[in-house]
Automatic annotation (TrEMBL), chains A, B, C:
It comes from the Eukaryota. This is Ammonium_transp domain-containing protein. The keyword Membrane applies. It is a multi-pass membrane protein. Belongs to the ammonium transporter (TC 2.A.49) family. Rh subfamily. Gene3D superfamilies: Ammonium transporter AmtB like domains (1.10.3430.10). Residues 42-405 form the Ammonium transporter AmtB-like domain. GO terms for molecular function: ammonium channel activity. It is found in: Membrane.
Length: 449, 449, 449
């Protein structure tokens, strides 16, 4: 490997980190501690932020630790990308803020930390699709580009379209999943090789369960983190809690049903049990009846298990679309479901039921302080538009990023492996073969009872 | 296996989940967001709820992951049962509420989520006794029956007898443990077979320590979660913290003392270190002196280590009472101890020391807003009655459930194994042999220093 | 082994625990629940305390679980020492309190629990230096002596010198590290033996990452835990968050740069990623600009990775200074850096920028309620003095404790191993050989990409 390839990561990351330092010093300030009226107290939101912070760094990291040979890589690249995205997302969001346009600087507080952590989730979901197939340099560039697209979509969905996406299921889960799938479509590979090495992945799967369970436990916090006022936050917590519970029971039911011998599949348990939280996300602050949340959880895990069992194998076979962590069935389809439910609930509920909270959920509804003119139908159309913008940007951004970062991997890989002269691409191929083997092993060992 | 046996779990769980959906839609509502006076704000109790939620799903799950071949099963069945119990307990508790009897519906909030999670703990403790010996279907039915008994006992102890069981050591820990032990007594087995396979269980024990430590760290939250007002909650936190600390040091002392060579036993470390939190539980809100909490911790770990070292082997030998996770010594005896301490502290402290908080701790004490007529002695009798009701229901309920779910397993297992024609029972036997082997291996490897 | 050696631990720990019980009962009380003005409400600080509690018991425990054969020992001795130190530190701090000198008793609340947990961190950092080289008895005595020194230094730094050490980087991180290094210098060993046994440490490193990530996630809480008022706490959170993010990216950059082939080193990832939080600690409440926090994070991980790559091997070679967990590069140097930064920021910022919060950060600054007479330069001198006192006490205390606890280990170990007649020292030697082997294996396997 030439010096440039060995030092590529260091130089690129150093370049970014220096740029970040300069941008922080030029444009970023803290809230003025002397200005009482603007002071943001840490006591109110900080515990919720910490729950989300734990999900991002420990939950997502360990969720991706199920591959024996990639466990440590997954967890540490997860850490690297998150630390990178935190800074870049804070800066980008600052530049898009009204405050920056007015004063030339922007300020940081706990809510900005929460948004930065949400941006990490986007990149980590995409990383789940591409895990084991990219070098650290490629992941870093992916994080750079994807965060840029993602913050832009955030801005359009919330500040221009004024869509209700309370738990960020659209702009985080669906965006991250389809961005990654689009990139994977570009960098697809041709052959699946069977390997001979055997090995139990028992412990790796227990590590992965640490991730699953942390995400399970803190999902109510994720969906409630940026909600206000208190009754919306309260509903977001309760709805997510119920959707997770009913979704988990349904996952076990379906996992056993789709197996010939009635066994549970650990892939479903590690992933579909979380789909209820994703699917309730967009409308978590809006759903008014416990039974609706229970029903959403049932639907979500239904599509998620069906996706794992029937859709993913078809996508792999027909479109060569490889999805290492099964992100499509955990974040992708349930994310779209969340968008659809947010339309249904915007149409279905009486706006009066929300009292004054209505204008926190749908800020441009008629009669509110923003002088909006929307009624239920118009709001529903905006919800649909928000979903469309999110998905379109995800796919376009993913295709562009994939084309830029994974050029011709498919061809190169389908050629004779040993004859390839690029060492970096050898690394990728080497990785890739292990990855296939791991995934095959995992499939073989998937039953737990 | 016939179709019915393969689909038994799916159909049964589907049936329950559909019933839950219907009951939620008919009878369950959220608190009216427009009614300010009744609004429950999420900020106050939610962080404590999250601590408990983490204990239930990650703590209990991983605590039971010490068996190499059952690690993943333990963690995932833990998740399934918890998601199931959350819904069933919420519904049951709602039906018993005054609100339901008055209006025909009941409402949910953060306190209801807390109670639902407590009900999960009851079932998970019982699961610890029976781990590795039951099929998912049997566990699901167990959860259904046990939750019904447990919510009823809750109702009697708190709403009828007005007993102080602050950290729920009686209705959660003691109830769960003796319910499981009674069921295990029915489904007892005859022979312990030695197996030849060797294997280190190092990693499994580290996973188990994740569970132990999470329970250790959040035990003060568990005992303080439903306390009010603030001074009672504060005492519950401090007392638990001190009892855990002194109990842990005592556990190491005794673990070394009962070993011929002075080594520590990892079974004691994984379980008895938590017994201080259980034993202080019932009176955690009432204990007024730090030294009393320290003393309770010392007593609790004393009985717990002695239980592991001398009582459990005797119960196994004489009564064929097998307790997979040593639940009796972690939740059973310390739970009874908690009941006894709650009597002692009710008798021993001057009621005036509590100020107005007295009527939160003992609602029917004389001179309070409930027009109670109890003095210290009468309250102590009620505490005793609460303990009696809890234990009696646990044993009766456990025996009934065990008889229903584990009919004739003992006989079947003592017969020739291969000749048994039922595949499900073969599964159980197969499981059982591995379990015995694991437990034996563990005993062999139990010293850590 | 004679009876005394086998029972040494039990008797010593029993002696301490009985003393603690007596001291608690004589001198320790809870806050009077009837005295409203003094009542400390649990809602405010408790969630931050729980974050720190989780760091101490799960984070530090698992951080030290990277050694395959010591994983369980590390986690359980961590638990034992913490439970011991909690009690001893609470008592010691109580005896030094003004309240005790005035009334003869002292009271406990959530802030006292926080301080007790901080004292645990000191001992656990020292344990990281000496891991695998001491018996439980030696660790217990170490905890006893070190806590005594540490609480004294705390008292001098905060109550006499009135130094700003907000996140306790000096009195916790630097003190713990240099105390341990001084003790290790006394108990140094001569030969490094190469062992033949092979083994993957993949899973152990994943366990260690649980520790790293929990510390990473909750470091903002650690640095903010005892800050007031809210704007200082808010800054402590934000500064730590940013310093962690920039430090993590820089760690990956440098880890790749110092490797010939550009790979990441998992030792750096497990430890240097946390150094930003340590280095910002002392002044976390005082730093006023986001970019300064970002810069501190970059500097910290720079010295930390350089320390791992170049300094530690030199210290081992020249001074036989063995540091099992690389504590010097995670807590030692970044701790000193924190002290230096606290001087720079005390000198550099306009005192007026802090408004009234100034006298919370620097209580004896001129014009405040304490009638202090310090200006920026004098405060900076006091900060330097605080650093000097901390380091001097740490080194002297460490040397004394090391001399007392590890007498002549160096000589004994350099002699013929098998001929040694003391069984306890055989245990140490046995341990030691495994330890060396593990560390060598780890070095061999250190690249992750």
């Amino acid at each position: 490997m030439c010096v440039w390839q060995r030092r590529q990561f260091s130089l690129l990351a150093l370049f970014f980190q220096m740029i970040f330092l300069i941008l922080f010093s030029l444009f970023c300030r803290y809230i003025d501690p002397l200005d009482d009226s603007k002071r943001i107290y840490s006591g109110t939101d900080y515990p919720l932020f910490q729950d989300v912070h734990l999900m991002i760094f420990v939950g997502f990291g360990f969720l991706m630790a199920f591959l024996k040979r990639y466990g440590f890589s997954a967890v540490s690249v997860n850490l690297l990308l998150s630390a990178f995205v935190i800074q870049w997302a804070m800066l980008l969001r600052g530049f898009l803020s009204k405050q920056f346009q007015e004063t030339g600087t922007f300020t940081l507080g706990v809510p900005e930390m929460m948004c930065a952590d949400n941006s990490c989730a986007v990149v980590l979901i995409t990383m789940g699709v591409l895990l084991g197939r990219m070098t650290p340099v490629q992941f870093l560039l992916l994080a750079f580009f994807e965060t840029s697209f993602s913050v832009l979509v955030d801005h359009i969905v919330f500040n221009i379209l004024h869509v209700n996406d309370g738990g960020r299921s659209l702009v985080v889960h669906a965006f991250g999943a389809y961005f990654g799938l689009a990139a994977a479509l570009v960098g697809k590979k041709k052959n699946v090789m069977e390997m001979d090495e055997q090995g139990s992945i028992h412990h790796s799967d227990l590590f992965s369960m640490i991730g699953t369970l942390l995400l399970w436990v803190f999902f109510p916090s994720f969906n409630a983190a940026v909600q206000e006022p208190e009754d919306a936050r309260h509903r977001a917590i309760m709805n997510t809690y119920l959707a997770m519970a009913s979704g988990t029971v349904t996952t076990f039911i379906l996992s056993s049903l789709v197996d010939n011998l009635g066994r549970f599949n650990m892939i479903h348990i590690q992933s579909s049990t979380l789909s209820g939280g994703v699917a309730i996300g967009s409308a978590a602050n809006a759903v008014l009846y416990p039974s609706h949340a229970v029903a959403v959880g049932i639907c979500a895990s239904f599509v998620s298990v069906i996706g794992h069992a029937w859709l993913s194998p078809k996508l792999e076979k027909r479109f060569k679309l490889y999805d290492t962590c099964g992100v499509h069935n955990l974040h992708g389809i349930p994310g779209i479901l969340a968008g659809i439910f947010s339309i249904i609930f915007a149409l279905g509920y009486e706006p009066e039921s929300y009292g004054k909270t209505l204008y926190h959920i749908y800020p441009h509804f008629e009669g509110g302080p923003m002088n909006g003119e929307r009624n239920r139908e118009i709001q529903a159309v905006y919800q649909l538009a928000g979903m469309g913008v999110t998905l379109a940007t995800a796919v376009v951004g993913g295709l562009m990023t994939g084309t830029l970062l994974l050029p011709g991997q498919a061809d190169r890989r389908s050629a004779d492996f040993q004859s390839d002269s690029s060492e970096m691409s050898q690394w990728v191929q080497h990785n890739w073969r292990f990855l296939e083997q791991e995934l095959l092993e995992r499939e073989r060992l998937h039953e737990i009872y």
